[in-house]
Design a protein that fits this description.
Number of helices: 17
Strand order of the largest sheet: 30-27-26-31-32
Largest sheet: 5 strands, parallel
Strand content: 15-25%
Distance between the termini: 48 Å
Length: 652
């Protein structure tokens, strides 16, 4: 542990040893700095705490630095990517490490008050300058300093009066090639108002504030607006009515349109909706439209004579919007995403604020790119332990909704933390975040980590979408309206009974409920991992009831038709078991739809489904009953014809 005392006129920074650093400091004794030895600089950043004393403030740090010491290897282990950022610098010294330690060369100094960008070269032997020079290998830092996020810390910001706020830093998450940034003529202060939840941090950043509090109404800048064939035409109508028939959208690169709901139906009005979207896209020059057909001047018409099983879409079609959005590189940590669909909250799995809105709000966003929202309170669900064999992420969210009720999180953020959450892959996080709305939540959210960044970066690269983003991270101290620990190891296969997702029961106790149909698909249950789990149960067996399978995206179709198990594709394993598999990826019967929708419940029947909602009439007939369950449980139940605990079919 070492102490640094910061006074006005001091330079904050650290050299390889205390003597080098002290030589550069003015009026600061070198003794405390001698505790910093060379080995300390090679250790990861640890906890930083603050203790208020008489002026100057005292900053205590373990294996840390004064100012910020930045190392590329830490950036790679924490993020695995390069961030592009810039921030204004006032009265700042920028020095390169070797220069600090190895010579008496003067420091490069900016003019106080100037708004300049610091360029951090990847080659640590190049002197770091301001925007006057930019080596080809430079890492450019983008948001303003008052939006410079340090993981677990909230925001660092430099006020006009020259005070840097370091709000309870736990870990510095953003680190760069070997360099030191030293600030002069500043003092350290602590701002307790910056202890925020993930949702509050993202909203604060989006509205240009240092901090926000639950219940506060703020205007946020929108990063992405999503719409589809059901709500898109209405959204377009609102936009044209309010902004004019010839109005242009606020930012064509921030609008994503994905037809997916009522697509593979002969219903003429549903087919027309896709054409309305295409006309608007052509009029506005929107680049992110994932059309059903390839002809931009054409018209969509489903050909019922070809049946429902074989592909009837073009090369740009993306499938279910909530699954397609991340697959196409449109989900990025730290952003604001609004969508004209209640399950837009699924994108919260990527550490962003994502929520559903109505057509009126969406039409307003099309015009100005902003929306007035109320900051929600946050509920924390802290997951410990590991899921037992046969238990899936779907069981986790069904258990939680059953615990708090289907309205238990109304207009609140559901924040998922803990080692159990951290260990989940992205598909599981998406499953859980997707069903936040089933508890009435405004949004669901996971803290971004290396798993998130790897997933996001790979899909950004594959699709050429916007590459830069500004994630936020967990603060140690957060204020929750609800906080509960869940032991994943204690959970069992769970079913949500008719008529709402909050009616929780254990699958092992429901064997007397007979079934007429099984269904696997949708944004919640139509991912590749969902079908692999389903296939694990039914492989080599035959289903006893009508079983429908609807992949969420064309990408899922391709993967199921190319992944081989014991000489057969997973697709073949499913069809051999009697599952009716369609190549036409869409929402299909999850939202009911026209009478010819694949898998729709057109009469009174009991259906067990891997989808996300089971209100009366949700999948068709109002007389039907829908039981929500994991892909494992749906598969096991399809084999027996009654609700079945999947552990009966899984070897230990």
């Amino acid at each position: 542990m070492a102490d640094l005392f910061c006074q006005g006129g001091d330079i904050l920074g650290i050299g390889k040893n205390g003597h080098d650093f002290a030589r550069l400091m003015r009026g600061v004794p070198s003794q405390p700095l001698e505790h910093f030895v060379a080995s300390n600089l090679d250790k990861p950043l640890r906890d930083i705490s603050f203790r208020k004393q008489r002026a100057p403030y005292r900053m205590s740090m373990e294996h840390s630095i004064g100012g910020c010491f930045l190392r590329e290897n830490q950036m790679q282990t924490r993020f695995g990517r390069r961030f592009k950022r810039s921030f204004p610098v006032r009265s700042a010294f920028c020095v390169q490490r070797d220069e600090l330690l190895g010579s008496q060369a003067p420091l490069v100094k900016t003019t106080p008050g100037q708004q300049q960008s610091i360029r951090l070269p990847g080659n640590h032997r190049t002197v770091i300058t301001t925007c006057a020079q930019r080596p080809a290998s430079a890492v450019e830092i983008t948001p303003r300093l008052n939006q410079f996020s340090a993981g677990g810390s909230g925001l660092w910001h430099l006020e006009k009066k020259g005070i840097i706020h370091f709000p309870a830093i736990r870990k510095l998450k953003i680190e760069f090639p070997q360099a030191i940034i030293c600030f002069s003529n500043v003092s350290i202060a602590l701002s307790h108002s910056d202890f925020m939840t993930l949702t509050e941090k993202i909203i604060a950043k989006a509205c240009g504030k240092t901090s926000v509090a639950p219940g506060e109404n703020v205007w946020v800048n929108v990063d992405v607006l999503l719409t589809h064939d059901v709500c898109g035409p209405g959204t377009i109508g609102v936009f044209k009515r309010e902004f004019g028939q010839n109005a242009k959208v606020w930012d064509k690169n921030k609008i994503v349109i994905i037809p997916d709901h009522y697509i593979f139906t002969a219903d003429s009005l549903s087919n027309r909706n896709v054409d309305i979207l295409r006309d608007f896209v052509r009029e506005q020059g929107l680049p992110y439209f994932y059309d059903v057909i390839d002809d931009p001047e054409g018209h969509w018409k489903f050909d019922a004579s070809q049946g429902q099983l074989k592909r009837q879409y073009g090369s740009q079609f993306a499938g279910v919007c909530h699954t397609a959005l991340p697959a196409k590189g449109h989900t990025r940590p730290g952003e604001i995403l609004f969508g004209t669909d209640s399950h837009t909250c699924m994108a919260g799995a990527f550490g962003e604020f994502a929520t559903g809105i109505g057509n009126t709000d969406a039409g307003f966003i099309l015009g100005i790119g902003k929306l007035l929202i109320k900051v929600p309170e946050t509920m924390r669900f802290y997951l410990e332990g590991q899921l037992a064999h046969g238990v899936m992420a779907k069981d986790v969210i069904l258990h939680v909704i059953g615990d708090i009720g289907f309205d238990g999180a109304t207009y609140r953020a559901m924040q998922w933390e803990g080692p159990g959450a951290d260990a989940m892959h992205m598909d599981d996080r998406m499953t859980i975040a997707n069903m936040a709305i089933e508890a009435g939540a405004k949004n669901g959210i996971f803290a971004p980590d290396q798993t998130t960044f790897d997933y996001v970066d790979a899909r950004i690269k594959a699709n050429g979408t916007k590459a830069d983003y500004d994630p936020v991270f967990l603060d140690r101290d957060q204020k929750f309206i609800y906080d509960k620990v869940f032991d994943l190891s204690q959970l069992e296969p769970t079913v949500a009974m008719h008529p709402d997702p909050g009616q929780r029961e254990l699958a092992k106790n429901l064997g007397k409920i007979t079934l007429d149909r099984a269904y696997i698909g949708s944004c919640t249950g139509g991912k590749t991992s969902d079908f692999l789990a389903f296939a694990e149960i039914v492989q080599g067996k035959s289903v006893k009831i009508d079983t429908f399978g609807v992949p969420a995206t064309p990408g899922v179709v391709e993967e199921l038709q190319t992944i081989h198990w014991n000489g057969s594709t997973v697709w073949q394993i499913l069809t051999d078991a009697g599952v009716l598999m369609t190549e036409n990826a869409s929402c299909a019967a999850c939202l009911g739809g026209p009478l010819d929708t694949f898998g729709r419940l057109n009469k009174s029947m009991n259906c067990i489904s891997a989808t996300n909602r089971n209100f009366p009439g949700r999948m068709g007939s109002k007389e039907s009953k829908v039981f929500l369950a994991s892909p494992y449980t749906v598969a096991a139940s399809a084999l027996t014809g009654h609700i079945t605990d999947p552990r009966e079919f899984l070897s230990a």
